[in-house]
Amino acid sequence: MVIIIKNWTTGETSNCRLAVVRGCVAENSWPIVSENDDIVVTYGTTVGLWPVHNGHFKAVVELERGVNDVRFKYKEEQVLLTLRLVVHSTELCVVPLYVVCDGHDGRFQAPEGTDNSLDSACRRIALGAHLVQSLYAEKLLEKGLPRKTFQVENDLDPGSPTCRVLHSQLTMSEARKLKQEDLWEFIGREIMTSPIASEKRKYLAILSCTFWDGTRVVADPALGGGGLALLGSGTLHTWPESLSQLIHCFTDQRKMPPGLLDNSCFRGTFAGCLSTSLGSVCHEVGHMFNLGHTPTGIMSRGFDNVERVFLSVPSPQVKGCAKVDDTNNLILVPCLSISSSTLPTVGKPERASCPASETSEDDFTSFTSACAAILAHHKWFNNETSETSTVTYDPIRNLVSSEAGLKVVQLRGSSGSVIKSWELGSKSPHKHLILPRLKVPHATLVAINSFGSILSQQI
Length: 459
Hints:
The chain is of the alpha+beta class. Helix content is 18%, strand content 30%.
């Protein structure tokens, strides 16, 4: 019997706080068949138990700056994995933020007996930001790109709050009357006139006063772009406060009571609400990093199964579908409900070999290759550099140019949906691209070069 780590090699370096480690317990190159066993994961003074399902496991390990020795033990077998956390040399970061309206005490809606204090909200948001950070890193790796991601403020400055609090001048009653676009604009202006304002920061903000009255939800934005992703707190009570709660929260099959918001894509469970709401954060953060809507994947409606990114326990796929109408607006069709007949088999599976290394898996959560390429070259995903090179567009010749080399060029419709996308290779710089003449009203050109400079222009 042997423990095989599939997505890391010992000595690897990462810039994300949480390492998602996938592996299997194998015998004669085949995963063992087990139902209820755990693998013991030890790092520093932390000891965690992570489920092994049909020989496969996942564990989420919190790294400290520098060298981290992580030991995996299954029965009598052990393996040591050494990982290094090295943050990017940059001031660009994402700030987790809890927005508390004037006159509101910061307590988010939650079941009776659940800690819904301001401090609890901050712990949940801080961990959620790092889970999203890790998901982005793993999804780039799955596309054959280096494992890298954005930095959270506390990564760069350990003395800073893990989640900041913004006390808004907007009252709770006013917030509950505004449309999400107006909320996004108001909160965005407040942030940029506050002491935490900086062009080198983007803000992942959760609004405290989201409320479900049994028939409708108010103050529940889900909107991202520019420097702000703003979301509601209607299902924040399902989020874990610490890594020790992660497995329980992602597998919590309690039914959501009628008095609380059920944003679970028709699953009706606490775990479903966590996966969908955290997936929604991934989607809106993508818009902050200049990603458009895509027909499939995270930037469509393919974000309801994020629990499978972090856990090996079986869960049914929640299927959503995205369509584009005649004016190129993305239509997100409601997700399909799940019947018991679609649940995966939890008995003995058809066995597949356990390779020594493997960077991808079918966890129903992915970026398109163009989205991954944009992120990989984005300034917020790399070390800062003094080198600069702009991207320009010549409307007469319909020509996009950059001396540094173009990486991704896209035409997007009025709702941000990707109509046409070009990914330009890395073997030699592609300095120019002549666009075809497309009859697309109000199209937006988005292009990124090898230095991460981005052009976004209506054409």
